[in-house]
From TrEMBL:
Protein name (database record): Alpha/beta hydrolase fold-3 domain-containing protein
Keywords in alphabetical order: Hydrolase
Xref: Gene3D superfamilies: alpha/beta hydrolase
Classification via InterPro entries: AB_hydrolase_3, AB_hydrolase_fold, Carboxylest/Gibb_receptor, Lipase_GDXG_HIS_AS
Family membership: Belongs to the 'GDXG' lipolytic enzyme family.
UniProt key word Hydrolase: yes
GO molecular function, one term: hydrolase activity
Membrane-spanning ranges: none
Residue span(s) of domain Alpha/beta hydrolase fold-3: 76-296
PANTHER family in the cross-refs: ARYLACETAMIDE DEACETYLASE, CARBOXYLESTERASE 2-RELATED
Source species taxonomy: Eukaryota, Viridiplantae, Streptophyta, Embryophyta, Tracheophyta
């Protein structure tokens, strides 16, 4: 006898990321794989899982050895990509990237496992990112809950970094720090925006003729169903109600884009607007030709990914005035 059970129908198709069904269940098509932390023999980096606050896990990475006894390292607060709906610090490709970043730049990384939509609608991810920044800053006196930060971090050298959706989170933290409880013990030195996920209702540049724009419009409406659409301040840093870029607290930033990425025009636009805004910091811009969105995550050992990672390490470790 055939079953009379009716299979749920797809109510929303956000391929290649996820499918949502009429019964409310979610099927994530990518980004759900997980690897454990530990010692990575390829990079000599050690990682472990921690809890920032209840409901906000993270994975922290440190070089297994440092070149100088009692040498304090920069801290990179990292936010992974995934369109706000997939991935985590334990996703193998992000875990490998953070190992590589720690090894190449000689830093400590905290990779934040912020909550994902649609189960946790935006701005949940933004709130988690801000909570992570506050938690990190609370270690500045050396008496925070995480010994790797207490013992190993130079809190005058914090970097906010992320790719895709994670870049958006880094930008918002950099604006929110202005006028907050952060004090002179903590310095956000730089911001690293890798293929940033900024957007807007009106197309700019090549977006005008790019059929992928409608796809990105639809994706944003799914993760953030607000009445402002793609001009919500959470995704458009230059719309009404968005914090002005003059609030960015770091002294320097680098914006990295990929030539074939639908988001590359927005990254370039962001860089140019900040550079011309009167903001007093130093801006850098880096284009990878012939590559698409977050290629360095999926092709980590290709020459252009290695070149990009060298650029990021150089940016972190460059001499400042």
């Amino acid at each position: 006898m055939e079953s009379t059970t009716t299979k749920p129908q797809i109510s929303y198709d956000m391929s290649p990321y996820l499918l949502q069904y009429t019964d409310g269940t979610i099927d994530r098509l990518a980004g759900s794989e997980r690897v454990p932390p530990g010692f990575d023999p390829r990079t000599s980096v050690t990682s472990k899982d921690i809890t920032i606050t209840p409901g906000i896990p993270a994975r922290i990475y440190t070089p297994t050895t440092t070149s100088t006894t009692n040498h304090k390292l920069p801290l990179v607060l990292y936010f992974h990509g995934g369109a706000f709906v997939i991935a985590s610090p334990a996703f193998p490709l992000y875990h490998d990237f953070c190992n590589s970043l720690v090894s190449s730049a000689d830093v400590i990384v905290v990779s934040v496992d912020y909550k994902l939509a649609p189960e946790h609608p935006l701005p949940a991810a933004y709130d988690d990112a801000w909570a992570a920044a506050q938690w990190a800053a609370a270690h500045a006196e050396g008496d925070g809950p995480e010994e790797w930060l207490n013992d190993g971090v130079d809190f005058k050298r914090i970097f906010l970094a992320g790719d895709s959706a994670g870049s958006t989170l880094a930008h918002h933290i950099s604006c929110r720090v202005n006028g907050s409880c952060f004090d002179e013990r903590v310095c956000i030195e730089g911001m690293i925006l890798i293929h940033p996920y900024f957007w807007g209702t009106d197309p700019i540049g090549s977006e005008t003729h790019d059929p992928r724009k409608q796809m990105v419009d639809r994706w944003w409406s799914y993760v953030c169903p607000s009445d402002k659409g793609c001009d919500d301040p959470l995704i458009n840093p230059f719309t009404d109600g968005a914090p002005g870029v003059e609030k960015i607290v770091c002294s320097r930033m680098i914006v990295l884009v990929a030539e074939k990425d639908i988001l590359s025009e927005r990254g370039k636009y962001y860089y140019e607007k900040v550079r011309k805004s009167g903001w007093k910091g130093k801006t850098e811009y880096f284009v990878t030709e012939g590559k698409d969105h977050v290629f360095h995550i999926f092709e980590p050992d290709c020459e252009k990914a290695l070149e990009m990672k060298r650029k990021i390490a150089s940016f972190i470790n460059q001499e400042t005035d």
